[in-house]
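Problem 12. The chain below contains 185 residues. Write out its predicted structure in token notation.
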Amino acid sequence: MKKFLFSLLTIIATSATVNAQSQFEKGDVSINVNWVMGASDFDSKCVDNTMLNGVGLLGEYGFMNVINSKGTISAGVLLGFQAGSTNGVDLSRVRIGTRGTLHYAFIPQLDTYAGINFLFVDINKAKYEYSADGVKYSDKETDTDVVAPALVAGCRYMVTSFFGVNAEVSWDKYQLVSLGLSFKF
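Solution.
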């Protein structure tokens, strides 16, 4: 275990000096694999805004340098799945959308960015099971939103030129926080 920890610390220490390109630039492609936390979206009597956990996948491409080549505009596609339960109701969400982002290095060695998520589809499902008069019933409810723009801000620290970590917050009640791994090509 000591050898493993020593090796891990050595890799992190040496890769911090190798981190030549932490800023996202024109022509870069990145993929984020994230843990996502957000709220459910049902206005039903038995479902409140329960927190849902899930996974998200974001791919983006830097297509234009701006602000004297210190910033980069990127476009991307996002996919996500979240699930949870409350009061005997199983909830799930599938999200498919696009994103436009401005990357600008406010802090050296940290890729900071802000942008807008445009969701193509946000499908929320609820499955109810209940008893009435000694009989068990089950019911399903589906709610679909088509376009719901939301602001997003985050940062990415590249441990190596290929691998990094990221964190995001979103002003969207469905995806509040996401944390994960980044891969840049």
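Discussion. Residues 15-20 have pLDDT under 50 and may be disordered. Students who got a different answer should revisit the alignment rule from Section 12.3.
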